[in-house]
């Protein structure tokens, strides 16, 4: 693709740029698929402000408690990246809220050997840490490790291990229920309560909120709890995928924060009228019903964004870039090979921090299931060709 772009005749490129038929087709695509992103950006800002205020209330309530420390929220997923294929009224803004251990505790990540999952999974062991006053005897902080159960009980001090854990492991379902209860009780003091009515929707391992304005505008927010792996952009997520529903003490490895960071990096490098987000949204709509996952499409576009220079993603090249994306996907389907973006990728931007094992690993194949199932592979090719 890169060679074709570099060898294109400048005169033919100029004629392509001014081709009325092409520009008309781009206009039709933009209107039909509602490709503008300002409304997504507006919704994202409203949700980020909501989460900032909500976490500020939580810090005032839980600063001296045994509950996990809630870090600033991170917007992830297609809506926060700016390309959601959903209609405006159906868009869900997903926010990761990283958890840190409160004083007196430590989190230790352990590989989950009890559950067979296709996606990497871990359990988060919660361990007590000594908080005895030491050289400052005037402190009245009780120590779960060394104070007697009678002293703790008489002071009505509850333990994280006894409330949000199952055994010694952090429990995603218990954390979700705790946070949902907090949101319901805290909503009346939130500034947004004067603009929106709020409903907490059913969810086992996240907090889903429906915010409704008097004008009829609705915002859907999903708060997912996460634990960072070291200092990297890879997190463990409390929310399972639709295909995987492990025990509540199993946390799945998520690349959502790294993906969001990648798209921010691309936006900083791109021209003001870059079409990469429009291409993603358009192709996602085109692929509906094809059996191909949105994640496969997203991975394809991330690969192409590292292969095709930013200048070649200007709006006038939208049709060519869509063609590149679909052609790349078709080739990957034929070869039954689509490499995961974050494993063994030499083109990874330096701004994204990955665990050392990721950089040294062999790339994972997102189409491995097609390589193992000839019937599924044949079906996928037929469905794609119908497009």
Assembly context of the chains: single chain
CATH architecture of the largest domain: 2-Layer Sandwich
Fill in the CATH topology of the largest domain: Beta Polymerase, domain 2
| Total DSSP helices | 15
- Beta percentage is 15-25%
**Structure class:** alpha+beta
Compose a concise summary of this entry:
InterPro entries: ITPRIP-like, Mab-21_HhH/H2TH-like, MAB21L/cGLR. It comes from Leiothrix lutea (Red-billed leiothrix). The chain has helices at about 1-5, 10-15, 20-30, 40-60, 75-80, 150-155, 160-165, 170-185, 255-270, 275-285, 295-305, 320-335, 355-360, 370, 375-385, and strands at about 70, 75, 90-100, 105-110, 120-130, 165, 170, 195-200, 205-215, 220-230, 235, 250-255.
Folded structure, characterized:
Belongs to the ITPRIP family. Keywords: Membrane, Signal, Transmembrane, Transmembrane helix. Its main location: membrane. It is found in: Membrane. This protein has two domains: 29-255, 2-Layer Sandwich (Beta Polymerase, domain 2); 270-386, Poly(a)-polymerase, middle domain (Orthogonal Bundle), CATH 1.10.1410.40. Helix content is 41%, strand content 17%. It has helices spanning 2-6, 10-17, 20-32, 38-62, 77-81, 149-154, 160-163, 172-186, 256-269, 276-286, 294-307, 318-335, 356-360, 368-372, 374-385, and strands spanning 69-70, 74-76, 92-100, 105-111, 121-128, 165-166, 169-170, 196-201, 206-213, 218-228, 235-237, 251-254. Strands 1, 2, 3, 4, 5, 8, 9, 10, 11 and 12 form a ten-stranded mixed beta sheet that branches. It is globular.
